[in-house]
Amino acid sequence: MLRPAPMHISSAYTKPPGERRATLLLLDGAREDVFLRLAADGDLPNISRYVLDPGGVVPATTVFPSTTGVAYLPFLTGCYPGTCNVPGIRWLDRRRYKGRWWADREHVRSYCGYQADRINGDLRSGLESLFDRIADVAVLASPFTRGLGRTANRVRVARALLGSAAHYTGNYGSLDRAVGRELARVAARRHALVFAVFPAVDGVTHFHDPWHPAVLATYRQFDGIVGEYGARGGFDGDHLALIVSDHGASAVKRHTDIAVEMEKLGLPTLCHPVMWRRDPAAAVMVSGNGSAQIYLDPAGPRADRVPLSAIESGAVPGVRKDVVSQLAALDGVAFVAASEGAGVVVVGEGGRAHLHPEPSDPARITYRTDGADILDLGEGGSRGEREWLVASLDRRYPDAPAQLLQLFRSDRAGDLLVAAELGCDLRDGWEKPEHRSGHGSLIGDHMRCLFAANRPFAGPIRTVDVFPLLLQHLGCEVPPGIDGTWEASATS
Ligand SMILES: [Zn+2]
What's the rounded Cα separation, in Å, for the pair 309 and 345? Predict the structure, then answer.
């Protein structure tokens, strides 16, 4: 564990007291309850001193799919994945993909591998990142770098080398220590914003479960890193210090591979890692591994998504019309969602439910059940989208209304969206090493994430709200048209 070192700030970097600064530490995959338990047990003394004692933790939710990389975008853009047009860590461009293995490889995306950097160019044009708005920034180990100069992203090489080794060995601790050493170096430079990513909690969790001693050790190591940073002046000035996570995690006991199940239904299915299938009836793109998006007749190509009514009337070539109900009945599947006009239909066992933005006010969402309360919202009706967040926070699918609607805003999202239930993920066979924990679904264990700040705030907070919070603190203008708001989740 790193020990706090004596403070040694070069006078060359000293700026007037009271300057506004911010630090955003992203503890990938950290669960709020694990974090709070460790803090209560006295295992996070540095985090308690610098962050929790002056501030605290408030309830927070991430985005759907609750997956590393995609779920970083809200912090950095203030927008949902659907708004960013990056609907998952894997997706298919239905307008361009024509079924050719080599010629069309750029029209199918997986950010796990050689296409990792593409996330920067895939982001919808016109969106601004934190790095566009804040000039004086130090960024450590971020996979998202749009708006940054090439050298401004520190720990880039170590992240690539140590990260790919750790994927197989589980040795994420060395990667976090490398980020921690660089964080200690930048502490005294008094940047306006420091953003650092710590992958170890998520990486080690995949090998175990969220409460495993090896996972708890990564939180404690991170606490030592925070202590070192604080001792070197990292939190000086009028400082907003945030420790956040991009999603939670839960133990995985069984795997339901959607691509395998589609083949059993007689549908030739394209999926990673071999991105070729003769005359595919479907393509399955898994995110996280708790959710999957399915593209029907993927080699169309097609201009638009296929609505549920068209699928169920048998209008898609080669696709049986009962495919949605067949998938929804699979063990391990919580529900299947599809679009219908501007709304979303959610199909589960025992019925279906409908979500619609109100035509006169898209910030209000109507939920209507048809046989079953699939999204466990308790009752139907029309509410503001923030009211649904509050109402759903402690239920089975936190923030489900806004999250399902936002994802289908992306024209790259699948025709069908499959969410795994607790204890199950949606990929088997080629996931090496096997995941013993995962995330990516809309369930509470995945959607609830960590938001700790060194000043008291009222919750609940969405991860998209962090972007305007940071900009306002630093005195920067908040760009119009983003999904996050700060006024709605005001200071307590
Ligand atoms: Zn993550």
Answer: 10
DSSP E strand stretches across 161-257:
193-198, 238-244, 250-251, 254-255
The pLDDT value given to residue 159: 63
Cα of 249 from ligand 1 centre, angstroms: 9
Question: Could you tell me how far CA 161 lies from the centroid of its own chain?
Answer: 23
Could you tell me the distance, in angstroms and rounded to a whole number, from the CA of residue 450 to the centre of ligand 1?
A: 12
Write down the residue that tokens 């293995």 correspond to: 101
In whole angstroms, give the CA distance from residue 307 to residue 310: 5
CA separation for the pair 175, 161 (Å, rounded): 9
Predicted confidence at residue 425, as pLDDT, reads 87
Output the CA torsion 394→87→365→244 (10° steps): 40
Kindly state the DSSP code that residue 479 receives in the 8-state scheme: P
What pLDDT digit, counting tens, does each position of 433-465 carry?
677 888 999 999 999 999 999 999 998 999 999
227-247 burial by CB neighbour count: b if 16+ within 10 A, else e? Answer: bbbbbbbbbbbebbbbbbbbb
Query: How far is ligand 1, taken at its centre, from the CA of residue 16, in Å?
Result: 37
CA of 400 to the centre of ligand 1 (A): 19
**How far does Cα 308 stand from its chain's mean position?**
26
DSSP H or E run through 367? strand 361-370
Gap from CA of 159 to ligand 1 centroid (Å): 14
Q: CA–CA separation, 192 vs 265, rounded Å?
A: 55
CA 8 vs. chain centroid, Å, equals 37
Question: Rounded to the nearest whole angstrom, what is the distance from the C-alpha of residue 250 to the centroid of ligand 1?
Answer: 13
Of 117 and 193, the structure prediction assigns the larger pLDDT to 193
Ligand 1 centre to CA of 246 (Å) is 5
Q: What is the mean pLDDT of the chain?
A: 89
For residue 440, the CA-to-ligand 1 centroid distance in Å is: 9
Give the model confidence (pLDDT) of 367-401 as tens digits.
999 999 999 999 899 999 999 999 999 999 999 99
> Domains in the chain, start-ordered, CATH in brackets?
20-86+123-251+444-489 (3.40.720.10), 254-432 (no CATH)
CA of residue 279 to ligand 1 center, whole Å: 34
Q: How far is the CA of 439 from the centre of ligand 1 (A)?
A: 8
Distance from Cα 202 to the centre of ligand 1, integer Å: 6
- Asked whether the whole model's pTM tops 0.85, one would answer yes
Tell me the torsion sign for CA atoms 260, 262, 267, 272: negative
Compute the distance from residue 6 Cα to the ligand 1 centre, in Å. 33
Pairing of strands 108-110, 90-92: antiparallel
Residue 293: both structure tokens together? 């998006």
* Of 430, 373, 386, 418, the residue nearest 65 (C-alpha): 418
Q: How far is the CA of 135 from the centre of ligand 1 (A)?
A: 26
